[in-house]
Amino acid sequence: MKVTILGTGAYGLALSKILVENKNEVVMWTTFESEKNELLETKKSPKLKDFKLDDSVVITTDLEESIRNSKLIVIAIPTAFVTDVCKDLKKYIKSNQHICIASKGIEQGTCLFIHDMIKKQIKTKYIGAISGPSFAVDLVKGVPVGLAVASKSKRTLNIIREAFVNDHFKLIPTNDIIGIEVCGSVKNIIAIASGMIDGMGYPISTQALLITQSLHDIKAIIHALGGSKKTILSFAGFGDILLTCTSEKSRNYTFGKLIGSNASKEEIEQYKNNITVEGLYTLKSMHKLINNKKIKIPTINIIYDIVFKNEKIDKLIEYLMI
């Protein structure tokens, strides 16, 4: 089938490799002409080590052209840009085209998750999301990974699985798209906190304390927002939290470690300016969401206070020991 990936970030590029392996016709869209030219000329990207773009992949900056006759459209752009892209996408998308969310996060201001952001702009029932423990660098190597795929539409579930599933890429279906998006978003926040704990010099035993507490917190958020508490035990839940909160391959974890190790403000700002730390964007939105909904999740509030209000980092450890 023809599949379009919107976004040429590390994860989108890694997904292109899976799709090409499965004999799909792949088109990638970027809004940047310079990025398009670099990918076409070098077949490489500074965003993803050891990656080589397959010669069959088409790169374009023309959104209408990119989705023409595509059966599946994969959203792989930062959350902050999803609404604007969808405003343009609705001009061209057809009623029989399916959408797969590969991004994670919550929109600032509205506090909408990505599937709601899409539905606000595009009238479609064919929206799904994939989420789970899978770094882009690992997908490129072709190691065995497992993710959850969620949609209210069985047809969309089947199409996403047809496009992606192979002998090293596993997708377990569910209809709990709310739970999947909550897990995929909040784990980036917890990864920042886990990195802080590492930066402070505490061992993995203390990180395990945080992770275990966080599982209960995320389950409470899922339940409060109308999802299934069982989703916390899925690839998108425990699986992704375990991976992201214990590895320096995670940009969120690395950012948190800088804070925990008392790195200079200049070093922290430089990292933020050069690397997309999705958890920072999500932290602001999730903090607002849980307080608006009156959901009591002290962990989120404490991480917010440390990151944005310069509260002492010891506050996190003190809370975990209550």
Side-by-side strand order of the widest sheet: 3-2-1-4-5-6-7-8
CATH architecture of the largest domain: 3-Layer(aba) Sandwich
Count of structural domains: 2
User: In this structure, how is the largest beta sheet organized?
Assistant: 8 strands, mixed
Order of helices and strands: EHEHEHEHEHEHEHEHHHHHHHH
CATH topology of the largest domain: Rossmann fold
Structural class: alpha/beta
Report the principal-axis shape.
Answer: globular
Assign the CATH superfamily of the largest domain: NAD(P)-binding Rossmann-like Domain
Radius of gyration: 19 Å
State the helix count: 15
State the name of the first-level CATH class of the largest domain. Answer: Alpha Beta
**What is the strand content?**
5-15%
Helix content: 40-55%
Mean pLDDT: 96
Distance between the termini: 53 Å
Unreliable segments of 5+ consecutive residues: none
| Counted beta strands | 8
Map the helices and strands:
Elements: E1 2-6, H1 10-21, E2 25-29, H2 33-42, E3 58-60, H3 63-67, E4 72-75, H4 82-89, E5 98-101, H5 114-121, E6 127-131, H6 136-141, E7 145-151, H7 154-164, E8 169-174, H8 177-199, H9 204-224, H10 235-244, H11 251-260, H12 265-274, H13 278-292, H14 298-308, H15 314-320
Parallel strand pairs: 1-2, 1-4, 2-3, 4-5, 5-6, 7-8
Antiparallel strand pairs: 6-7
Helix pairs in contact: 4-5, 8-9, 8-10, 8-11, 8-13, 13-14, 14-15
Report on this structure.
With 322 residues, the chain is α/β, with parallel strands linked by helices. It has two domains: 2-175, NAD(P)-binding Rossmann-like Domain (Rossmann fold), CATH 3.40.50; 180-320, N-(1-d-carboxylethyl)-l-norvaline Dehydrogenase, domain 2, CATH 1.10.1040.10. Helices cover 52% and strands 12% of the residues. It is built from 15 helices and eight strands. It has helices at residues 10-21, 33-42, 63-67, 82-89, 114-121, 136-141, 154-164, 177-199, 204-224, 235-244, 251-260, 265-274, 278-292, 298-308, 314-320, and strands spanning 2-6, 25-29, 58-60, 72-75, 98-101, 127-131, 145-151, 169-174. It has an eight-stranded mixed beta sheet with strand order 3-2-1-4-5-6-7-8, with helices on both faces. Helix 4 packs parallel to helix 5 (114-121). It is globular and about 55 Å long. The mean pLDDT is 96.
